[in-house]
Amino acid sequence: MTDHKDPKPKASRLSFLRRPSTRYSLGAILIVGIATGVIFWGGFNTAMEATNTETFCISCHEMGDNVYPEYKETIHYSNRTGVRATCPDCHVPKEWTHKMVRKVEASKELWGKLIGTIDTREKFEDKRLTLARREWSRMKSNDSRECRNCHSLESMSSDKQKQRARVQHRMAAEDNMTCINCHKGIAHHLPEGMTEEDEE
To answer: How far is CA 106 from the centre of its chain?
Structure first.
């Protein structure tokens, strides 16, 4: 009498894997879905944060050679308190929804990079006023949201300000003005060819 194993248990396991019960297939889908979501979200968030650094911003020579040296001359780069505002602090919102909108808008800059819109100092200077106006308009439309991440009229000690600044900030509060109305050129050189309207 030969002793051989019954192949039925193996066959039944294979058939179970091919046609799992509804309970097990929903559980498997749920587990795989959650794992995939966590991996996707982690990768997406890591990529977003990697593109949200000063190092990333100045990796393009258009920024590194033009506006970055200007920024290094300002109080936002070096000051007595040691608090530094980097590129994303001023140009990328902190709130997730606004950040995603800004990232989508900024993705157009990749096309400009590919076709060399501002790849020389001369081209950059020719477009500087247009680029500045676009950023000023964005900041006016969102009430200088990124500035207000660090600065607010309510938290300023007006008695520690010079009289001119104290008066200007009081007027700004009364007239519902926003930071960029008065602080153009705070981190970068002002472009040539500005009009009176640009000064407002």
So the answer is: 9
The Cα 72–Cα 83 span in angstroms is 13
- CA Rg value for the chain: 28
Alpha helices (runs of H) in 72-191, residue ranges in sequence order: 87-91, 96-106, 108-115, 121-141, 163-174, 179-182
pLDDT for the residue numbered 189? 94
d(CA 61, CA 119): 8
Would you place residue 1 in the very low, low, confident or very high pLDDT band (cuts 50, 70, 90)? low
* Residue 99: how many other CB atoms lie within 10 Å: 15
**pTM of this structure:** 0.76
Provide φ and ψ at 7, rounded to 5°: -75, -5
User: How far is Cα 81 from Cα 67, in angstroms, rounded to an integer?
Assistant: 23
- Could you give the 3-state DSSP secondary structure of residue 178? coil
Encode burial over 158-193: b for 16+ CB neighbours within 10 A, e otherwise: eeeeeeeeeeebeeeeeeebbbbbeebebbbbebee
Residue 2 banded pLDDT, cuts 50, 70, 90: low
CA distance 72 to 36: 42
Which pLDDT tens digit goes with each residue over 15-50?
Answer: 555 565 555 677 788 899 999 999 999 999 999 999
